Amino acid sequence: MGAIPGWLLRHTITVRALTASGAYEDEFADPVSVRCFLDQQTKVVRSPIGDDTTSSSTAYCPLGTVAPPGSRVVLPDGRETVVINALRRDGGGLPTPDHLEVQME
Question: Which residues of 84-98 are buried (b: 16+ CB within 10 A; e: fewer)?
Answer without folding.
Answer: bbbeeeeeeeeeeeb
